[in-house]
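Give me structure tokens for this 262-residue protein.
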Amino acid sequence: MADTKRQNAAGKVPVATPNIGPSGTVSQEAALSAAIGARIRLTTNIPSQPTIDGNLFTVCPFTSLLAIATPPPNPVHHVIPISSIQSFTIQSTAALSTPAPFANATPSIAPLLSASLLDRATAAVARLQEAAARKNKSVSKDGQEIFDALSRTLPTRWDATSIVVMDAVVIASPYRGEDCKAKAGAGQQPGVLPRVKKVVSSISRDKILSSRLECLVADLNEIRKVFPLENERKRLADRSTKVVPAVPAMPAVLAGGPRKGG
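Here you go.
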């Protein structure tokens, strides 16, 4: 039985409830909570602050504290224990009945420009849709790169897997200069087709050079793995700096050849 009581007590969570005075009267804490925002006068048992006038800012039932703001020219927020309050008087309830409009708020609150926010949201969605329209999942990586390069300087869009430039030139896969054709039914725009061909050829040439450079770098890396040139160079350098020991000089042969006897 004792264990059961201890388990029930451990599972309970304290709940904050308003204090009810004798005969069902509302406690001072509840009465103060109802007067938040009003101008009141407090009578306390604090010797340094026997009376305080100001606007009731808030009442906290968990800490049993309240905050009251004295009016200008010396606005100060006082935090006072509710237990130190002997009585209070509501001097003005205008703040309770008619809240101050935003126009009189301090600091000032500007009106929310909903139309401007809607325009910004619409523009952001349009940019995202445009970016998505520029990506074509049905083409190769090279085709997408050529499209991106053209779209930086010329009006460009996708038509299935073909690139349409300025609504006058169609570039079919594999997107080379010779694949540029005048769009059927488009008005005559002198110089557009040669210009697009030149740009596409230049992009293709740059891509070929870049690809060759990447292959060259990859080949060099493979050669370095097979033949560690740097290590060989260091070994040769170390060998060239080594000091060769001196060979002792051979004694000179006496003239006339070897002598016999002593």
